[in-house]
Amino acid sequence: MNVAEKSLIYLYCVTKAKPDCSDFEETGIKVYPIYFQGTYAILSRVSPEEFSEENLKKNLANMEWVEKNIRQHEKVIEEIMKDITVIPFKFGTIFKTEEGVENLLKENNLKFKNVITDLEGKEEWGLKVYCDSEKLNDSLKKEDERVQGIEKEITSSGKGKAYFLKKKKSELIKNVRNEKISEYTQDSFERIKRACLEAKINKMLPKEVTEKKESMVLNAVFLINAKRIKEFENILAYLKTKYTNKGLIFDCTGPWPPYNFCNLSEKGKVQNE
Amino acid sequence: MNEVTKSKDVALIEVLDKVLDKGAVVAGDIVISVADVDLIYIGLKVLLSSVETMERLRGAPMSGGREEPT
């Protein structure tokens, strides 16, 4: 496909420092910056066959296409952010003309600069916690007095009473389990939060999407001073030691582009006040 | 660093969770809507009863760990 056919412009991220776009040649994507008063928009040309409003909608139903393009979006931004601070944009932010991008840089000049300055030297990390219910149940039987109490009562009861107590027990375990999950995840979140600049809890993803047999019980993101990563890792190691035998599984990823911490409207408001 | 995963090797769902739902939003000429994002999640598992999943995706509680694991 020749360049003339690629009439749409895809926006990956905005930076303040000049980005090195030479690393993308091997991938076949031509990434290039445009400049306006101290800010750069990192772009590539894309074809309307893939990214026009109508075709984009069609392509979003094609998981192969989505995976390829989503990973490419992430790869370009990760490459850029190796050296400089970025504002990562949402996947599929498309402009019809370079003037459109220039206007964006013009209209948001101060806001972009402020957000980038704010993010300098900081990293986004993600933590997803899953719960192995069986393992948690086992630990409750060993450690929880309420569960142990009812078990004792069952063994010392006659058949009829034991039947009802068993029903009561499963109800009790369910409640205790929820209570414990809440306690463990809150403790984990609060402890990590202390080493972070910002922390957020995102919606949990169902098993159908995570494709794990354990349920997600916490989906959190953290903005961390790059100099304090070691501290973050130590807390995480501590939490793993504390909660692994209680059924929690910690899945930590990063550093990510600060997707969760570049709220333009929020930061814009603060700057305007 | 064996405590953490390098983001390059992470599962697609990790990338989707960031790139589709988060990231700076501006008025481009073409942008992906919330409905489009739902479409992608449905595409991930076409077979499942998508309505229920969408409700869970959109309406999951914002504080961690309140829901019973199923």
What is the topology?
The complex is a heterodimer of chains A (273) and B (70).
Chain A: E1 8-15, E2 31-36, E3 39-46, H1 48-51, H2 53-60, H3 63-81, E4 86-88, E5 94-95, H4 98-107, H5 109-119, E6 122-131, H6 133-143, H7 145-155, H8 159-193, E7 198-201, H9 207-210, E8 215-225, H10 229-243, E9 248-256, H11 264-272
Antiparallel strand pairs in A: 1-3, 1-4, 1-5, 2-3, 6-8, 6-9, 7-8
Helix pairs in contact in A: 5-11, 7-8, 8-10
Chain B: H1 12-19, H2 34-44, H3 50-59
Structural write-up:
- The complex is a heterodimer of chains A (273) and B (70).
- Helix content of chain A is 50%, strand content 22%.
- Chain A has 273 residues and is an alpha+beta fold.
- Chain A has two domains: 3-120, no CATH class; 124-261, Alpha-Beta Plaits.
- In chain A, the strands form two sheets. In chain A, strands 1, 2, 3, 4 and 5 form a five-stranded antiparallel β-sheet that branches. A four-stranded antiparallel β-sheet of chain A has the order 7-8-6-9.
- In chain A, strand 2 and strand 3 (39-46) form a beta hairpin.
- In chain A, helix 7 runs antiparallel to helix 8 (159-193).
- Chain B is mostly helical.
- Chain B has a domain at 31-59.
- The relative contact order of chain B is 0.09.
- Mean pLDDT of chain B is 65; it is low at 46-51 and 60-68.
- Chains A and B meet through strand 1, helix 2, helix 3, strand 5 and strand 6 of A and helix 1, helix 2 and helix 3 of B.
